[in-house]
Amino acid sequence: MERPSKPPEPPQRASNSLLTVIMLLVIGTVCAGTLLMLPTGAIGTAIVFGSLMFFGMIGFHYVVWGRWMTRVLREEALKEEQRVNDAD
Predict the structure, then answer these.
(1) Beta strands in 17-88 (DSSP E)
(2) How far apart are CA 88 and CA 79, in angstroms?
(3) Residue-wise pLDDT tens for the chain (88 aa)?
(4) Which of 2, 17, 38, 69 has its CA 20 to 30 A from that of 63?
(5) Beta carbons of 12 and 4 less than 8 angstroms apart
(6) Cβ distance 56 to 64 under 8 Å?
(7) 34 vs 53: CA distance, rounded Å
C-alpha cells in the first residue's frame, strides 16, 4: 500500500520575505542603539551576556524541540507498526 503523496506547498509570498527583512532591521537597530548607549568598558560584558542569552535560547530550543520531535516520531512509528501488524 503506497502512502498518498503530500500536496505541494504553496510558494512563499514576497510579503513574508519583506516582513523578515523589516524585523531584522528593527532588531539590528535596537541592538546597535543599545550598544552605542553603553559606556565603552561595558561593551565587552554586554557582548558576553548577549552571547550567553543567544546561545542559551538556541540550546533551549534544541533540547525542547528535539525531545518533542523524538516523541512524535516514536509515536508515529508505533502507530505505523501497529497498522502494518493489523493488516497482516
Answers:
(1) none
(2) 14
(3) 566 677 667 665 656 678 888 888 999 888 888 877 877 777 788 888 888 999 999 999 888 888 888 899 999 999 999 988 887 7
(4) 17
(5) no
(6) no
(7) 15
Domain range summary for the chain, segments of one domain joined by +: 16-87
**What is the model's pTM?**
0.44
Residue 69 C-alpha cell reads as: 520531535
Q: Which secondary-structure segment (H or E) carries 43?
A: helix 43-87
* CA 57 vs CA 5, 34, 39, 52, 74: distances in Å: 35, 20, 26, 8, 25
With H, G, I as helix, E, B as strand and everything else as coil, classify residue 51: helix
Sequence-separated (6 or more) residues with CB below 8 Å from residue 1: 87
